[in-house]
Amino acid sequence: MRKTVVFVVATLIGATTLAGPAQAQQQSPSPAPSATPVKGSVQLNVNTAINQSLVDKYVRDAPNVALAKCEGASPTFSSPVLTFSNYIPGPFMGVDANISADVALNPGTGAGTYPLTVTCGAQTYSTQFSVPAPQVSKVPSGAAKAGDGSMAG
């Protein structure tokens, strides 16, 4: 009985090993790379494994970072509602960029869509980013308030 089990396991391992390359050959080839590679780009923030909706959105109460891929001397970010500091050369994990800068939203900036630009030598790249409306800080009317007895049964 023991010899039969060993033979069956060995046969299964051999069949799996032989089937692996055959299956790999049957898969369709990868798509060809784009004929015109992107030479430059700019974005605000980068997505994470947990949040896939961060690119080009200002995140209140969290660090924000401008990222760019560009060639040329002295890359500079600009936006009418952002202040940039702490320029750091890349590369960066998870995003195709070679320069970043910390971002602060200018006081008094309202919700809306704004431009973000990076200039690298003679090249300029632009995008739009959004500033979401702040969360409601007022307690809705009719809501229970701690200590007022409205929760008593």
How much strand? Answer: 25-35%
Order of helices and strands: HEEEEEEE
Number of helices: 1
Overall geometric form? elongated
Main sheet record = 4 strands, antiparallel
The strand order across the widest sheet is: 1-2-5-4
Would you give an account of this structure?
By secondary structure, the protein is of the alpha+beta class. The protein contains 1 helix and 7 strands. The protein has one helix at 2-26; strands at residues 41-44, 64-69, 76-78, 82-89, 99-105, 112-120, 123-131. Strands 1-2-5-4 form a 4-stranded antiparallel β-sheet, with no helix packed on it. A 3-stranded antiparallel β-sheet has the order 3-6-7, with no helix packed on it. Strand 6 and strand 7 (123-131) form a beta hairpin. Mean pLDDT is 76; it is low at 1-34.
Brief rundown of the structure:
Helix content is 16%, strand content 30%. It is an alpha+beta fold and 153 residues long.
From the structure above, extract its key features.
single chain, three-stranded antiparallel sheet, four-stranded antiparallel sheet, alpha+beta, about 150 residues
